[in-house]
Amino acid sequence: MSETSSGYDPKYVRKCRRKAWLERNIPRVITIAGISLFVFLSLYFVFFFVSRTRWNKFILEYSYCQYQANSGDSCRADFGGEAVKVDPRNAQSVFIQISSGGMKLMLFRPEAEDSISLSFGNGSVMHISPVGDDDVYVCLHGEEATYRFYIGEGAQFTDIARVLSLSRGLAYPNEVWEEEN
Questions:
Q1: Predicted TM-score (pTM) of this structure
Q2: What are the φ/ψ torsions at residue 170 (nearest 5 degrees)?
Q3: Longest C-alpha distance within the chain, in Å?
Q4: Sign of the C-alpha dihedral, residues 86, 91, 97, 99?
Q5: Is 143:57 a contact under the CB 8 Å cutoff?
Q6: What is the crossing angle of helices 88-101 and 10-72, to 10°?
Q7: How far apart (Å, rounded) are the C-alpha atoms in residues 109 and 95?
Q8: Interatomic CA distance for residues 142 and 127, integer angstroms
Q9: What is the pLDDT of residue 181?
Q10: Contacts (Cβ under 8 Å, ≥6 apart) of 142
Q11: Which of 68, 88, 142, 151 is the 20 to 30 Å CA partner of 74?
């Protein structure tokens, strides 16, 4: 110990001050950490609840559009300069792929130029765009709202494009869309 002539040890005083500061501030740090964790978890669950609710509304709106298109035989796909009258069974196959794929993310992104436009005959339009290698981004402009999602592993853009194409529509051929005057 290096003591001065008055018995004052600066290292010991710093150590005592540091210990006093920690004893005084540890409860504050723990409180702030607990509040931060609570806020983070609350925001996570709120985001999860909102996105899951939005996904359920999307599926309801999409199934309603699909029902109207199937009953009116008015499901139309526009892709690559072709206007295709989609067979109801092929449209149902696309619905199953998208709904079983599940929601990956709920993000906002403009539709790509090489997207597929799927019209349902009731004014609702869904844009299906490729993302990356074979992922799918879906934007449904429905009667009630606009829904935008990245779709999970169950749906692949090439499969959807193949089902909706004029040349090959699964086991059920699609037809050329003819405008009625």
A1: 0.74
A2: 45, -130
A3: 109
A4: positive
A5: no
A6: 170
A7: 21
A8: 11
A9: 37
A10: 61, 62, 65, 124
A11: 151
> 153 CB contacts (<8 Å, ≥6 apart)?
101, 102
- How does pLDDT run across 96-120, given as a tens digit for each residue? 888 888 787 766 666 667 788 899 8
Tokens matching residue 138 = 């879906």
**Structure tokens of 119?**
């019209």
The answer to whether 52 and 106 are in contact (CB under 8 A) is: no
R_g (Cα) of the chain, nearest Å: 29
Block residue for tokens 């018995």: 7
Residue 55 corresponds to which tokens in the numbers above?
A: 């996904």
Q: What is the pLDDT of residue 35?
A: 96
**Residue tagged 């449904």 (tokens):** 140
Any long-range contacts for 49-55 (C-beta under 8 Å, 24+ apart)? Answer: 51/103, 51/106, 52/103, 54/106, 54/147, 55/102, 55/103, 55/106, 55/149
Q: Answer yes or no: are the C-beta atoms of 31 and 39 closer than 8 Å.
A: no
Residues of the chain with pLDDT under 50: 1, 181
Give the H/E segment covering residue 104: strand 103-105
What DSSP letter does each residue of 119-169 carry, written as one string?
Answer: E-SSS-EEEEEEETTTEEEEEEE-SS-EEEEEE-TT--HHHHHHHHSSS--
